[in-house]
Amino acid sequence: MAPSAVRVATILVLWLGLCAQIGSARAAGEALLLIEADTGKVLKAENATYPWYPASVTKIMTAYLTLKAVREGRLALNTLLRVSHNAAAQAPTKMGFRPGTRITVDNALKMLMVKSANDVAVVLAEGVSGSVARFADEMNRVSARLGMHQSHWVNPNGLPAESQVTSARDMAILARVILAEFPEYDGYWNIHAIRLGKRVMRNTNSLIYRYPGADGMKTGFICASGFNVVATATRGNRRLIAVLLGAQSPAVRSAKVAHMFESAFRNTGLSWLMPSFGTVEQLRPINAAPPNLRPYVCGKRRPRPAKPVNAQARLGEPGSLSSLLSGMNPPPSNLIGTATINPPIRVYVGRPRPKAKVAARTGRNRASARRGRAAVGLPLPRPRPAEIGPSRRAATGRLRAR
User: Which of 260, 213, 205 is nearest to 230 (CA)?
Assistant: First the structure.
């Protein structure tokens, strides 16, 4: 047999061995899904249609309905919302505002996505629909319309509730829809940190400042679900959406998602070896009870936390398909880098402050950045002197002379 034929046969044998392990993720308490944002094509799927407790990735749906209300004119980004006693009574993590405090929709969205504030989620729900119950009804109607057949919602923040469930498939559908329908609000998913007075709060999604190209979206955790994340990353003109439910720790969660992103972006050219999953909408939901990971995540007999996964090592594990291919396309030296935090965006309570100096990544060039900043209520940068015409400069000079 020719050497090339032997090599291909070896690859196929290894691949079949890896395929035989499908289903092991559920036994370990994980669901994985990777799709292309533009096409919805599924690149990787393991237990992607098993029901799961969503935890705080619920807040992606809360943000979606809030932006939908803004677009429909029911709210504006500078609308003041009141913190009710119900909102203030929510369990941590939260901002801890007293009842009667008022915050704008814009500030509430930033606190929701960065701090994952449970009290702010209720503030937005009550502001959009009048009550948490009516907001949950709206969440369920939207889920049905979007084809999120495994999702059922009872609260806007993801705090433990037996009947609040979703799946990796459904969360990928939601992420894809929100990116397509509200591209002007991309800045909300990629804020590194916020500052409220002297408090600086870093985004719970460390991928956005540790993995090159990551630009969203939201993490989540409760004992029953494990560590969840819906993440996006862009390289060139290609944007990917990854969903991981049930990781053992935040470090493992980030490393595994980075590994999925990098494997897809590097694309060894052997995609014909991958099983065909179709699009995310074509994945068939499984009728089962969501796994309860509490004994394995928060119980007294929980296993010792796994050592954080080094994504480079995963690419070269002995006996893996990627280790065989590593000679053709060596893995990168580092997938999870050191934290590079952008300056925190200032948030505040009370009426809008249009002159507040804040920063957010909302576009790849100056024009799109200006549109994005305007869309999320951020002030536009002051024009450079070269951008001001002679008459304007003269007028500015006269005003200063006065």
Answer: 205
Task: Report yes or no: 190 and 183 within 8 Å, Cβ to Cβ.
Answer: no
pLDDT digits (tens, 9 = 90+) for 278-318: 999 999 999 999 999 999 889 875 655 544 444 333 333 33
Burial class (CB in 10 A: 0-12, 13-18, 19+), 80: middle
pLDDT score recorded for residue 354? 63
Give every CB contact of residue 295 below 8 A, 6+ residues apart in sequence.
Answer: 301, 302
Q: What would the pLDDT profile of 233-273 be if each residue is shown by its tens digit?
A: 999 999 999 999 999 999 999 999 999 999 999 875 555 55
Segment holding 193, helix H or strand E = strand 193-196
Q: Decide if pLDDT at 139 tops 90.
A: yes
In percent, how much of the chain has pLDDT > 90?
Answer: 65
- Please state the φ and ψ torsions of residue 45, each to the nearest 5 degrees: -150, 120
Retrieve residue 372's tokens: 């994005």
Q: Which residues are known to be catalytic?
A: 56, 59, 116
Tokens of 289: 């009870």
Average pLDDT value for residue range 365-377: 50
- The reported pLDDT for the residue numbered 352 is 84
The kind and range of the H/E element at 209 are helix 207-210
- The Cα–Cα gap between 163 and 141 comes to 16
Give the model's confidence band at 165: pLDDT under 50 very low, under 70 low, under 90 confident, else very high.
Answer: very high
Residue with tokens 């950045």: 369
SS3 176: helix
In sequence order, what are the beta bridge partners of 81? 103
Q: How big is the chain by its Cα radius of gyration, in Å?
A: 23
Q: Where are the alpha helices (DSSP H) in 101-167?
A: 105-115, 118-129, 132-146
Helical pair 132-146 and 168-181, crossing angle rounded to 10 deg: 90
The CATH classification number of 16-349 equals 3.40.710.10
3-state secondary structure at position 391: helix
Q: Domain residues of the chain, as ranges?
A: 16-349, 362-402
Residue with tokens 């705090």: 159
Q: Is 237 exposed, middle or buried (0-12, 13-18, 19+ CB in 10 A)?
A: exposed
- The pLDDT score that the predictor gives to residue 361 is 43
Which residue in 225, 229, 227, 243 sits closest to 293, CA to CA?
225
pLDDT for the residue 311 = 36
